[in-house]
Specification:
The complex is a heterodimer of chains A (232) and B (244).
Chain A: H1 11-14, H2 22-27, H3 29-63, H4 65-80, H5 83-94, H6 98-122, H7 126-134, H8 139-170, H9 182-190, H10 195-223
Helix pairs in contact in A: 3-4, 3-6, 3-8, 4-6, 5-6, 6-8, 7-8, 8-10, 9-10
Chain B: H1 3-12, H2 14-18, H3 23-55, H4 59-71, H5 74-82, H6 90-114, H7 118-126, H8 131-162, H9 174-182, H10 186-214, H11 225-228
Helix pairs in contact in B: 1-10, 3-6, 3-8, 4-6, 5-6, 6-8, 7-8, 8-10, 9-10
The chains are: A mainly alpha (232), B mainly alpha (244).
Main location (chain B): membrane
Protein name (chain B): Osmoprotectant transport system permease protein
Transmembrane segments (chain B): 33-53, 74-102, 154-174, 186-214
């Protein structure tokens, strides 16, 4: 480890080292794009897989109180485990691959998604379910045509939170060499505190998270046309 | 030898615990940094949250703050502080962690104060309480459960996040994991991961007990609660943070 005294000898103090350097971005466009691609693939993959697992889990948990306790308890436990430890647990099985990061991210997104899916499903008024059943709706039709639309806002809220936090979490994947834009952050740190590279990685993550949030908010608007009328 | 056995062998060696820079040293450093960061965040966030919640201003600000903080990778914040004149080391890590602990505490304090029944505030005013007395004697006790939840969320997040400092050459228990990866020794990696996970879970359990004891009013044991409430399903609150 470097001490504070020996830092003066580093190139950081001798050479100009601006926080923002557009030429860095243009010079390294190819590699930045590669890391960005990996970041997006990991995030989208984790949220999609997480949603596919979370929906059946939430449906199961809604059926009985006995199931919802363990499902929610387990998800709270997962949320407590630090991400670095999570990736370290998975790494011996899957090795230094992007799969390690993906598995960890799916586990975290599951926690958020199951909770929100369950809350959305439980918020469907029993009267509405009764009415639909009375009109002759079977379980599948009841779910697709009545419960899903009513629970959609809660589902989308869960997806948005999961996506934004997954974008931030992906950076920790640098521990196995697949951290997307996180590679830029630690790369710049290891390259004599190269600020332009660090800032590019950090800003990239924040912008990506905001963009993903905006896209999902737009999707929610498109999927729930009935909610649009009253609000301004 | 399986990896878990290797991890056990590592954890079972007293020398790995007591030597300089061993597990005990790293644990002490981890806890010192975390405690300082949470303390700093409480000192900053609680008074601000109390004032904002009491006056009812800044609701949009606190929600926006907690949303934005979700999108900022902690790794980036740790690194950014390290490349400022602060330099990397315990100070930069502590500041970065404190910055991350502020939003959950601030948001929960604000929400807790806003959630206090207006009639109660009116009544305490009518009893002749001054503004300060209303805050300290009426609103604070009623907001205490949510406030404590915020502190707990923040503390667990900080303990978990302090692990990340090791990725940028900082100290703490995360070092065992990064060193294990650097030496391609997955047994050590697993041992470090188990230690870190255990510490985080322990923090959660201890703080849950503390906030239960610190909350005024009739106490119900936390594990009895799900049975009395409608079968769980609280949505992810906006105030809580990212696991890191």
């Amino acid at each position: 480890m470097l001490s504070a005294a020996s830092r003066d000898a580093l190139a950081v103090d001798a050479a100009p080292n601006p926080w923002f350097d557009p030429s860095y971005v243009t010079r390294n466009w190819e590699s930045i794009l590669g890391y960005l691609g990996e970041h997006v693939r990991l995030t989208v993959g984790a949220v999609v897989v997480g949603a596919l697992i979370a929906l059946p889990l939430a449906l199961l948990a809604r059926r009985s109180r006995w199931l919802s306790g363990p499902v929610l308890g387990l998800s709270t436990l997962i949320y407590t485990i630090p991400s670095l430890a999570m990736f370290a647990f998975v790494a011996p099985i899957t090795g230094l691959t992007a799969t390690t990061v993906l598995v960890g991210l799916v586990l975290y997104s599951l926690v958020i998604l199951v909770r929100n899916f369950l809350a959305g499903l439980q918020a469907v008024p029993p009267d509405v379910q009764e009415a639909a059943r009375g009109m002759g709706y079977g379980p599948a039709r009841l779910f697709w045509q009545v419960e899903l639309p009513l629970a959609l806002p809660a589902f989308m809220a869960g997806l948005r939170i999961a996506t934004v936090s997954t974008v931030a979490l992906t950076t920790v994947g640098v521990i196995v060499g697949h951290g997307g834009l996180g590679q830029l952050i630690t790369g710049g740190f290891n390259a004599n505190f190269y600020r332009a590279e660090i800032v590019t990685g950090a800003l990239g993550c924040v912008l990506l998270a905001l963009l993903a949030d905006l896209l999902l908010a737009g999707a929610e608007r498109l999927l729930t046309p009935w909610a649009r009328g009253g609000r301004t | 030898m399986s990896l878990w056995q290797e991890a056990l062998v590592y954890l079972n060696d007293p020398f790995n615990w007591t030597r300089r820079g061993g597990i005990l040293d790293l644990l002490a450093e981890h806890l010192r940094i975390s405690a300082l960061a949470v303390l700093a965040a409480v000192v900053i966030a609680v008074p601000v949250g109390m004032v904002l919640g009491h006056t009812g201003r800044g609701g949009g600000f606190t929600v926006a703050l907690s949303n934005v903080s979700r999108a900022v990778p902690t790794l980036a914040l740790l690194t950014l502080f390290a490349v400022t004149p602060i330099g990397f080391g315990p100070t930069a890590t502590t500041i970065a962690l404190a910055v991350f602990a502020v939003p959950p505490i601030l948001t929960n304090t604000y929400v807790g104060f806003r959630g206090v029944d207006r009639d109660v505030v009116e009544a305490s005013r009518a009893m002749g309480m001054s503004g300060r007395q209303v805050i300290l004697r009426a609103e604070l006790p009623l907001a205490a459960p949510l406030l404590m939840t915020g502190v707990r969320t923040a503390a667990v997040q900080v303990v978990a996040t302090a692990t990340l400092a090791a990725l940028v050459a900082g100290g703490g228990l995360g070092r065992i994991i990064t060193l294990g990866f650097a030496q391609q020794n997955y047994g050590v990696v697993l041992a470090g991961a188990a230690l870190v996970a255990l510490l985080a879970v322990l923090t959660e359990v201890v703080l849950a007990a503390v906030s239960w004891a610190a909350t005024p009013g009739p106490k119900r044991l936390p594990f009895l609660r799900p049975a009395s409430r409608s079968a769980a399903g609280t949505p992810e609150p906006t105030a809580s943070g990212v696991p890191l």
